[in-house]
Structure formats: C-alpha cells, structure tokens
Design goal:
The structure holds 2 protein chains of 2 kinds. By secondary structure, chain A is mainly α. Chain A contains 11 helices and no strands. Classes of the chains: A mainly alpha, B alpha/beta. Chain A: Keywords: Membrane, Transmembrane, Transmembrane helix.
Amino acid sequence: MTAPALVRLEFARLRDRRSIPVSFILVVVVGGIFSLVVTGLASAVADSQSVAVEEIVLFIIQRGSVAPPVAGVLAALLVGAEFGDGTVFTHALIQPRRLKLALGYLTGSTLLGAALAVIGAGVALVLLLVIRPGGMLPPVPAVLIAVSGHLILAVGWAVTGVAFALILRSSGAAAALTLLGPLVIEGLLSTAANSIAPWLGRLSDLLPFRAAAALGAPLTPDQPALLVPVPDTWPVGVQLAAFGIGILIVVGAAVLSFRYRGLPQR
Amino acid sequence: MILDDVSFAIPPGRIVALLGQNGAGKTTTLRLMLSLDNGSGKTLFNGKRYQELRYPARTVGVMLDTVYAYPKHTACRHLAVIAAGAGLPTETIAPALDSVGLSTSRGPRVGDFSLGMRQRLSLAAALLGEPRILVLDEPGNGLDPFGREHLSGLLLELTGRGCTILLSSHDLDTTAGLADDILLLDGGKLRVQTTLKEFLTLGAGGVLRVRSDDPAHLAQLIERLGGVVLSVTRGRYRVSGLRAETLARSAQREKLLVTELFEDEARPDEAFRAALKQTTDGTASTVSGAS
C-alpha cells in the first residue's frame, strides 16, 4: 500500500457513517481547530492593529494554539488504532513491503490531515465571516510567519505521533508520549541538564521541541505560549535544524522498528 | 528458534493440510510465508516472494485465524476497505460474500459477529481478489457442522477451478480431511510430509478396541507396552501402536482378564493423534510423500 492507497483506504473507512470512527471525529475537530487558529491569528493581528478583538475570536486564538499537540495525539491515535484493531495485518497483506507501508502511514496521515484541514479552513472562514461580516483584513508578514511556524510545528508533532505509534504499537502509550514528551519530559531533561552543567543545559535547548518553541510563539500578549520559551542562546537556523534532525531520528527509529520487527498478534 | 528447517513445495491444484498441535508452529509458518514475521527462510508464490507480488491480493488469498477489521464496520464496508487498499473493484464484494454465505445487505457490525461469521468474513476477504492460491489458518474454527460442510464444498469447488490451498488445522477435522497431502509440524520441525492416504496408515496398522474388568491395570499395561490410548468410552479403550496378539499374551501373563478385544480401523482423528504421538516420541521416521 502506498500513500495514495492508504488515503483511499482511510476515506473508504471514513465513508461509513454508521461506524463514526473516533479518528473521523478527531480529524475533523483538529482540522477545524487548526484552521480556526490560522484564521484566528490573522484576525487577531488585524485586530491588534485596528479594532478591539471580539471575545469569541480571542477565545479561538487562545484555544486554537493547542492544535499542534492535538494533531500529534490524533496522528498517534490514527496509527495506534490500526494495531489495536489488528487491521495493520490487513494493511501488511495488501502492501507487504514494510518500508512502503511505514512511509504510507507517515505521508498518508499527513495528506489526509491536510485535506481535512482545507475543508476545516473553509468552514472556519464561513464562521469568521458570520462573526465578522466585514471580513478579514489582509494578512501581514508577521501573520504569515506565525501561521507557517504553527503549520511546521503541527506537521512535526503529527509525524512524531505516527512514529511513536509505530514504535510503541499502542494508541494510549503513543498518544501519552506524544503529549508528554515535548511538553513535560523535555523540560525535565533540560532542568536536569542545567543542574549538572551549564553547557549541558545550553545543549538541552536543542532538544527537538524546545528548539521549536519559537515556531509556536504567541502573536498577541493575551495568548499563552504553547511551548516554554528557551533562552536565545542558539541562532534560529540551528534551532530549526535541531527540530528537523530530532524528528528525523524518531522517524528513522520508527521505520527501522516497523521494518524489522514482526507484527504482534492482536 | 521457533521453526527449524521447514521446507515443502505444493503443486498447483492441491489441498495441503498443515497439521500440528497448538504451539507446533503452524501459524508462525504461515506468518513467515506472508512476511508478517521476519525469519531467515523464504517462500515463493508462483516463483515470487510475497513482497515482490505487484498485487498480492490477486495472487494469494489469506485468511488468518482472526478477522482483522474495524469493529464498527459492516461486512460490506470491511470488504470495501480492503478492495480500496488492494486496488480491486467493488464489484468483487458481492460474489465474495455470497460464496461464504454472508448477506450482502446491511447486517450487524463486525464487532457483533459470532466467531463463525468472522471466519466466513475472513474467508470472503481472502477470496476478494479471486486468487489462485489460498493460505487459510484454521478455516474450520468456530463453524457449526453446516458451516463446515459449506466450507468443504467451497474448497472443493475452488480446487476444481484450479486453486491451490494450504490450510492449517490442529486436528484432522472435516476440512483438513479434504486434503490431498499432509504436512505435520511438531516442535517447529516438519515431521511428516506425505499424502493423506499414507498418513492415515501411519498410526501403526489400525486400532484395538479393548476392555477389561480391571481398567487401571489395563491402562498401565498398555502404557508399558508402548501403546497409545486414543479414547476411553465406558471402560472401552481404543488403542493404537499395539498388536492384538502382543496385548493378549501380556494380559495373560499378568493374569489380567480381557473381556473384549477387537481390531478396528482408525478414524481420521485417531490416525492423526497416533501419528502425532509416534512422531513426537521419535518412533516414526519422517515420511516424504508426493507433495
């Protein structure tokens, strides 16, 4: 099964209205949330430059910033569920080349999420037009940078979620690690590193999601920061490279694990 | 090591039963053949490994011992999902469901299926691509007598159309009894590879039906003489691996009154157990037959 086949299969799965799979609801919800945060951010910047932000838009901006970790958890649940239902066997029989299947999971989930995010964006746009009949002001560079940052962070988090699911083969464990790893474990590791030696503490700032803190930086003072801001000790390019390399390592480990381990009996 | 030196070839159009007790390595063999587990050996389907097949579902139909499906889906939807992934047209779904006796209309969800229905659905999934090779893991499990009869008829029909079938079973049941050839696995080793006809005679020349007024003493005597008790019904023992003359003389020597002693033909399940016992005890050498 290649990525397009996986997407076809996922849509075939989702078409069954009676099944109401959890993944369907989550994909739509996270697609909607992400789209809302994107449009909300644009709206917020426009508002900060002109008129006061309506309460509902502020609400969307503040809650919408959780979209990247939700995308990660969703991705972990999507792939972890295949192990839970044992349908990974069905997939492995349809596409017995494991490397292709693993890449199919990674790219298929991304494509599916992106497709649904576009649908969600449309819905969000209509909602915002209803809320603000005057429409949105044109986006400014700061908004585009923020939106791109959130998008990269969401994709990275989602890919990490799929990778954890391929390694752990459990929805719950993968979802927990996807959430706790960046938000808690990296912070604890950094604290421990700082207490050992200052240079080790500096090095810990290059842990993938600590390095990516700038990507999820808030645009407005009212918006809470998603990731704990780190000291500005490394250039942005180095931080982004650390984020990319960290994700590549996790994905590599997942692909190797999936390729060379037998599939578990349900 | 779970499997050791398991090697066999299956000619086209044959039904081959892979037999063995629970834990003998049957499912592991099938998983290795299908690349679900990693091992050092290799299996060729029409000269190609499973991973090398462009459309695996069109060449090899696979039924594992459990149907792996999204529990909220109906049978139709489950097959639609597989067809979508395997690049098969949806027109193949109805014939596959019909052939296993499942309704094509909206029925219960897979999560609510009985074991027998799940088995049927799993078989339907295997038939979806109209493959010429079928690999079936314990296909008779969970089926009622009518279901087994239906399955037997279907398997015979498929072989009549030129299908080659490898099925595993822990017993020589009605389905495995259709086999042309037998592979017997024990402890991860292929102990017997022969035709069904030869396999049924492997149980050391039939069965003795014997009864005594001292059943405990009789049981001890049979064990000492190396016989295999196949079943005990109302004090009547069915024993393989012993000659009637040997048993009668020994009983006489030990002053054991034998009230009944007949020679009988082994039933398929008894032949299976006798052969299994003999191969595990090492009293029977590996037989290589036609397959």
